Amino acid sequence: MSLDIIINGLLMYVYLLIVLTFHECAHAWVAYKFGDDTARLQGRISLNPLVHMDLLGTVILPLAVVFLNAAHSSLSSFIIGWGKPVPVNPSNLRPRRLADALVSLAGPAANFLLAAAILVLARVFAEAHLAKMVDAAETMAYISLILCFFNLLPIPPLDGSHLLKNLGMSEETYLRLSQFGFILVIVALQIPLVRGLLHMATALTYVIFEHLVGLRHF
Q1: What is the 3-state secondary structure (H, E, C) of the chain?
Q2: HSE value, Cβ hemisphere, 13 Å, CA-based, for 75
Q3: How far apart are CA 184 and CA 79, in angstroms?
């Protein structure tokens, strides 16, 4: 088991907690703006990572991936993590379908914008010749983009599935699919085409952001 891989994995875990916190906070904030204060009353409009952490999905499973990777185990590719779901009461949202879609998109949008902001910060670090800080910022930005595009997959309970639901899928069908959601996500991630598309979207967006902020010149 490699100590270097464990240390790098734990750093990645910290970065994941940060970008996941922005993701969940954005869901809660947009829901509140469209009339549902369920998440606000539970303290979820917050950048405190602790309020968005799920014991299994945000602690146990992601840390298991770190140590499985260090042990070079292929089991790590079958494990996914998640934050504590933001409670949303759709009946409080106005207009209901549009607001529900926007609440769902808020998380990926937050990660998209956060990645851009972090790369601007990376440019500042580059100007100051702080190479390690540049590396840290670039890694965090990339993780933020991974989270953005991963959550846009149209599979319950991921955010992209709400777009399908609001485009005409019946509530009954959506709830039925949701029962097998995590299994469907794991299966989808084993499909080379899906993984390839996620990688392409993430890498292309990252490169565009790097060019826009001028990091490619360093």
Answers
A1: CCHHHHHHHHHHHHHHHHHHHHHHHHHHHHHHHCCCCHHHHCCCCCCCHHHHCCHHHHHHHHHHHHHHHHCCCHHHHHCCCCCCCCCCCHHHCCCHHHHHHHHHHHHHHHHHHHHHHHHHHHHHHHHCCCHHHHHHHHHHHHHHHHHHHHHCCCCCCCHHHHHHHHCCCCHHHHHHHHCCHHHHHHHHHCCHHHHHHHHHHHHHHHHHHHHHHCHHHC
A2: 11
A3: 12
8-63, pLDDT tens digit by residue? 999 999 999 999 999 999 999 999 999 999 999 999 999 999 999 999 999 998 98
Extract the tokens encoding 29: 């904030």
Is the distance from CB of 53 to CB of 85 less than 8 angstroms?
Answer: no
Residues 50-89 pLDDT 10s = 999 999 999 998 988 888 887 777 766 667 788 999 999 9
| Contact between 36 and 93 (Cβ < 8 Å) | yes
Active-site residues, by number, are 24
Q: Hey, CA dihedral for 216, 194, 160, 86, is it positive or negative? A: negative
- The encoded tokens of residue 11 equal 């750093």
